[in-house]
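step: validate -> pass
step: tokenize input -> pass
step: predict -> running
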Amino acid sequence: MTAELVRGQNHTLPQTRLEIRVSAGTPVVAGATLGDERGTVRGIEWIAHPGSPQLPGLEVSQQAAADHRLAVDLEALPPGAHRVTVLLALPVGVGGPVRFGAVPAPFVAVTGLEGTEIASFTLTDLDAESAVSALELYRRQDVWKVRAVGQGYAGGLAAMLADQGVRDPAALAGTIQEAVTRGLARSVAPPPPRTPEGDRVRHATGSADHRPTAPPPAPEPPEPLSDPATTGPAHTAQPHTAPGPAAAAPSAAGPSAGGPINYAHPRRQHAAPPSPPPTAPPAQPGQPAQPVAGDATGWSMDERLYNQIWGMFEDLARAVAAYRSAVDFAESRMDQELDRTLSDPRNRIGGAGDRAREEARAKRDELASRAREALDRDLAQLAAEAAVVEPALPAAYAGWGNPVWHAHRIPMEIPMALRIGDLHLPERTDLRIPLLVRLPLERGIWVDSGRAASEAAALMDTDRLRRLAMETAVAHAARLLAVYPPGEFAVHVIDPAGSAAGPLAPLVEAGVLAGPPAAGPGGVASVLAHLTQRVDLVQMAVRARAADSLPPDLDTGEQLLVVNDFPHGFDDRAVTQLRYLADEGPAVGVHLLMVADREEASAYGPILDPLWRSLLRITPVADSHLADPWVGHAWTYEPPAIPPGSRVLEQVLAAVAEARRAAGR
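step: predict -> pass
step: emit ->
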């Protein structure tokens, strides 16, 4: 039975190989310090943190995350270590919350390797603190115990490290935050919080690995995808996570926690409460529950499907994170047992050494096998759910091969989100989770046409890759046009050298562009000046609360600017205007969809770094570049593909043009 601790309470630990699980509802930094009998940290070599995540008997996450799993083997700690203190801190300088009083109360649980919960502690009553000592494992008369601490520090990570007796704590805190910031710059944000009854995979399969659900962090679920891999080499997240679901990223969460989750779209009005979701037929004894499309909470079927999809994302992230953690721990345990056994020269040769190796490998294989069995059960349940959900998706959430597109009609109201690709993990590549972004877009998109973007891109001809990138951008623009009401979404194109005439042909021939693709310096300057002026006018009207003062000929619908082959054809003034549109445009309905190779823009130096960071980076070929802070995985992104020989794109654009003519636009 789980011991639910309060501050100061302790509980005896029945075993020494443990996991410490953290659920925070928002990305946090997790670390741990080792202390001697007096609780003193002897040096930085006794501190595990994202920049140095492993110590003997202790491993922590390599980046900030909403969920963490810390592996602890108390028997393998360094000699003289009598205490393990788990530390949590909010990332700084990334635009997220700066005090624990503004986020859900973190939940910390100590579990066995098989997932059985031993003790738990909810860190309540925090306010101005930005760092906290959550709990400690300590040895008293050769017995290990856990104590709930919950000591917060308004001075942040540096003050907490100083209290632990660390020398030069400010420098170490800066090193830790720098490592965290590098990880946050390219990550998938946490999926929306699950309702208490929403941990479907664990409950449906009867797995022993039940995970507590943290209190909902905010009324508004965050955008699924947060920051692209915009700096440095391709990022591979370690299971801390990971994930992504893992990877922590600045959360888009709104007000602080408390009360039920509000799934209402922030720009949509509703007059009636949500209808109850569909319910699955009763499961047969001993069998998992049958999945049903739309079984999440929401105001409409679209919203229920949206929340269900991101529930599947979270379930897949957690299931794989648990599996990877178990396998890593099994490998680590085997190595430690072999090191201890073979440290005695008498056991290095002969039968004793061979038996020790066989026993250690057998234990490793048994643990890994049990973990794989649990993972396979979870993946089978998710695959069954995906098979039910995918055919039920509306056009905005559906792949191009879904028949729903052939019967698509231009809507009178924008959907909640738009599918821009799929995500999967190597443990089961055929299990794809739709990648959805909220509408209206809150950030621009960058289709990376560089050959260094991924291994697949490096093997492709440069011209072919650029054409494929532009075709990807055109397909995304067509999707956006198809899900907005007639006349409420306009697409502008900048093609300085006219090199994208082929990929742009479907948009041009359908007559759905706001004007001919702009070419040459004059065309580039004209389009940028027009959109920059629109941003300025709308901003002034919003600030003055005088929307009726806008010019009558101003198009107040959403605007999308598609830019091909940046930075070719852009002078310094044009680059400045583009940066301005990326920063200020989304708030007033002007969005960027860029096709660019970052290396070709390197001549501008760091001046363009904010531009790349402000855009969501995707690739025209499959690539494992999306990290996630939920648990720390590196997710493979698959761009949406139009089936070979299909004319669905032309049919959709024809429907857009017809709807505009019928509406007199």
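step: describe -> The mean pLDDT is 80.
step: cleanup -> pass
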